[in-house]
Structure formats: C-alpha cells, structure tokens
Amino acid sequence: CTQEYIQLPSIVLMLRFFTRSVLSLIVASASTCPARSSSASRPAFIAAFALSPPSAPSTSCQATMTASVAAESTDLPRWDLSRFGFSSPFSDEIDSHLEETAKLAEAFKAKYEGKLGELSLLSAIQDYEEISKRKTLVSSYLHLSYDVSLDDDTLKKRKGALSQRQSEIYGDNLEWFSLDVAELDDAILASQYENDPSLTKFKSFIDELRRQKPHNLSKDVERALTVRSPYVGNRPLVSFFDKELSLMRFKLDEDGKEVNMEVLLSRMQSSNDAAFRAKCLQVLNDGLAGSVSRTAALSLSSVAGGWLIENKERKYINLRSRRNLDNNCPDEVVDSLLVGVRSAGIPLCKRFYTLKKGILQKTQGLDKFRWSDRNAPIDIGGVSNEKISWEAAVAMVKKGYNQFSPKMSEMFVSMVEEKRIDVPATNGKKGGAYCAGVIPGVGPFQLLNFDGTKQDVATLAHESGHGVHDILAYEQGYLQYHPPLTLAETASIFGEMIVFRDLLAQSSSKEEELTLLMSKIDDVVNSVVRQCSFDRFEELVHTAREKGELSADELDEYWMSALREYYGKEGDAGGDSPFDTYENTSHLWSYVPHFHHVPFYVYSYAFADLVVGTLYNNFLTNKEGFEGRLLALLSAGGTKDFANALGPFGLDPTSSTFWTEALTAHLGELVNEAEKIAKELGYVE
Predict the structure, then answer these.
(1) What is the pLDDT of residues 585-615, one digit of tens each?
(2) Alpha carbon of 457 to those of 160, 391, 453, 501, 677: distances in Å?
(3) Do 436 and 34 meet the contact criterion of CB atoms below 8 Å apart?
(4) Which of 42, 172, 423, 473 could serve as 637's disulfide partner, Cβ 3.0–4.6 Å?
C-alpha cells in the first residue's frame, strides 16, 4: 500500500511486508491485506458469498487508487487466470457454472434444513464447503478480471448482475445453514462428534458459527439483508466512492502533467526536498477537498450508520465487539492494546519524531517539521534511489525469503513462475496491491502496480508473504484456511524483522546503520501508533453517527482531533508535538479505504507488530526449531485463535502488561539505538 494508509485485502486478510526492511523503506503500514467482510457479523466465507472483493478495501493490504502508468510497464508479466477454468468474464461457462451451483444449493437445503440433528453434520459441512468453493471461484474470477479493467463498464455491469444472482442463491438456499449450526443443541452436537470423530476436523468452523449465536437475527431478516445487499445499503455507495477515488489525478509540475494518487504519494515520500514534499501534501489535501471529501463523508456516514444499527440489533457490547468477535479476540485484550499504545507508544512516537526532526534539520536544512516530512527519507548513507528491474526485484525477494526459510522462498518462486502475479502499473487497473487467496488448488493471486521503486519491491515481498501463508494453510480446507486478523500479519512482519536485523549487522558504516534504523522505526510507528490513531478517528466518527448523518467538515474535525491526541498539539500553536504544523492534513481521512470496507480493522496491525517484537526476542533466545513452529502457525490457518497459536512461543497477549512491555522492548529499544548513533554522529545533542 502507499506509505499513508493500510490496505486490506480479498476474501481473507493475508500476510504482508515479509522483507520490506531489506530495502530500508519508509512505509506507513500494510500493502494490501484482505479482511473479513464488513457486510455482516457472520464469518467471511459466508458474508463473501455475494461477490465480496478480493481486496476488502484493500489485505489487502493496498487497493483503491488507480495505478500509475509507466510506459515500459506493458512488458511486465500479467497473471494467468486460466486456472479458474473460464475463457472470459463473459463466457457462458460462468452462467452454466452458477446455475449448477444454484441447483446444488437447492438440493442442499432440501436435504439438510431442519434435519442437522438427524443426518450427518460432517456430510452437510462437506457439501456446504464444496458449494462455497464453487461460488468463490466465480466471484474471485470476476473481481480479478475487473480489477485490471476498471474502465470497462460492460464488465462492471456483468459483475454486478452475477453478484445479484449469487446473493439470491445464498439468501434463498444457504443462509439458514450457519444459523442452524449455531442453534444446534449441545447434546446433539456432542453426539455428532461421538458418532463421527472425523467431524473434529471442522471444529474451528463450527465453533466460529456458534460464537455468533447471540448476535444472529431471524432467518427471514438474515435472508433479506443478504438478498438486498447488492442493491441497497453500503455496498453500492462504497463501490461508487472507490471508483471516484481511483479516478483522481493531481497536477504537480508546471507542464500540467497529471499523476494519480500513488505517484503523488511516492514522490512526496521519496523526495529529499522539503519544499517539494510540502507542495505534494498541499496538492493532495486540496484535491481531496470538495466533492471527493463530500462523497467520502456520505460513504463513511452510511457505513457508520449501518454499523450502529446492526450493533444494536445484534446486541454487541461496544463499537469494536463485532470486529473482535470475528477475530476471536476478547474485548479486554483489544482495550488493553489501545491503552498500552496511548500510555507507552505515544511518548516513544514523540521521541522518535523529535529525533527525526533534528536529523532533517541538520541534513536538509529543515525550517519547520511538517506532516509532509513524517515519512521523509533519511539520506545519510547506504540507500540508492535507482529504478529496480522486475527481475532484480524477484531476485531480492527470493534471497530475503531464503535467509529465513528456504521452503517459503521456493513457494515465492513458484508464484512468479506460475504467473500468479499481475505486475505492471497500467491505466484502468486498481491501485495498490493485494493477494487473493481464492480457493485451495486455484489461488493465490497477487495484484501489484510495479514501477521499479524500492517500495514496489517491498510490496512484492509483502504480498508474497500472504501468498505463502495461503499456500501453507490450504491444508485446512476452504472453510478454515483464513487466519484471524490478529495473526494475519504476524509471519510477514516477523520475516521483515529477521531481514532488518541481518542488514543492520552487515552495515558498513554508522550512517548506514542509522538510515536502516530510522526506516524501521518509521515503519513500526506507522504500524502501531498511526493505526491506533485511525482507530480513534473511527471511534469518534461512529460515536457521533448516533446523533445523525455526518458532514465532511465534521469528519475533518474528528480527524484533526485524533491526530492531535496521538501526535500532540502542533508546536506553532504552543503544543508539545515535534510537528510544528499540521497544515494541509484536514482531508486525509477521505482516502483511507478500510474505514469504509472494514470498520475497526486497523488495530490488527498494531497487534501484529507488537507481537512480532516479542516473537523476535523469543527467536533470539530459542532459535532451535523456531522456523518449524512458525510454519506450523501459518499452516494452522484459522484453526487456532491468537492465544493458542502463540502459546508454543511462550507469548501471552492476554496479560495486562503485555502491550506496554512489548512497546518498550520493541519500539523503545529501536529508538534507543537510533538516538545513541545519532548522538555519536553529531546529528543531535
């Protein structure tokens, strides 16, 4: 994703950032990660039936902006979708496949509805899984096809029509199943397990459905919500906003040449010229004003309103409870994380930006430390800005993976060789990046917008981490391979940490070492503190929505309030923030995709980054067998919750002191190292 926001993902939230640090990048958070559907409180494999996108906003973790256009990009590899078995999105094969799916769904309902206690629950789940795989095959194929042809209105209409048909099939014939499994009497379920021990294979799936029981509505209401979703509600509005955002263009140069948002952000965050960075931010913020922010406000207000109503109807305790339940993460653990970041993370964040401000003043003659300088490069040694070829990028990622896990390196190479990656940045293509898991035996597939930058190489490494995670977890079957959001980023960020420390050890000078450290801390602060500030913005927005529809001006105010809470009041106004001014930041909320697609998702990044900090320390003290334990965690997919998955590593995120200790040991030690070297080099006193 761009350095400014996290991107979510396809039907599932996949792993990213495996070797981003190998390139000393300054990135904000994820690339594009998928997440569970935001359309309902039910699991992703259910809510996604009606063609939910492979990049929810965008594990993606990066999707919503149109790609930059490079003249040479047409020679780069495109993905091969022939594995889906369809010749084109308009093929009659798709219609035939869908109608056969409808017949299977009708037969499934006739055979099992009201009889789960009498018939084999194992057989019912196996049949349900096969029907679910058939629907995902179509929905994923249509989404992948459309995401490289956003300007094809005929394809958009075709995708919409099939989405409507999918919703009808699910609502009429499959909606009942998750509800009936949730309502099964405990004694009947125990009898099913006893009579057929093979049913335990699907225990995680069954448990997930039954956790939703207190929040399920009646069958008629659930069906109505599903069937109506393609026509009304949030989805059409959010889709319209996505497309409008993808069409945005900005004028930076005197020659009047326009660039898209990704190019604008890339130029801002790679420039060593503070005045140019400030201009980029002004152009971005001004461009988001007016009709764009009003459209974003309408979309976000609708999403928050829907979230509010469903929370009440489904009887969730607080704003985040619905997302926490999807993640199988207790409210108390998430609350403890957010409190920990406020108490320990914010002071560390201010220390870091004070350090960065001092270095930039010495190296770039900075007069004011602006928001546009937040991700500015520290150019004091060891970093090259030359364009990187696709072949070189592949070699870099392969080497990075191989340093930690030859098995994961082999999987990455197979994704490249099997043409599972759509590489170039072309007009009409969804911006950012994501990895779509699709179904076992067909996926995964990656969408990139490669233009030869270090960020692009990092994104390749990140999305490939998600792909590897999918491949390893496919053994759990379609219904259970999706990891919870709290674990979906863990392995990729751990791989990044391994490579970062390896590079740090190989530094040829103190200047290069400081450059690497500052880049890494940029990333951690953006993944932890920035994402929790996003969560705070959502909290303000969703709380205010109960009083009525929200305007763009109100959302601007909530955005600035959250910004000051986490970064301090600007220095020019007499505050304690390292930033002298927050000029040209008021509209930046309007292009963050996961506010619209996956409410209250963002804390997962902070969760993962801090878990990795302690996981890395565990690795240093207990390397023997560590790779095997990590691969076992990935292979478990969604069959283990975060506590059980992390148990073999000796970690307990349920502890009340875990998060503050993790912040001190992870982010705190990095800041200590950077401050020490900066003082030695004379950049700060």
Answers:
(1) 999 999 898 899 889 988 988 998 898 888 8
(2) 34, 11, 7, 18, 28
(3) yes
(4) 473
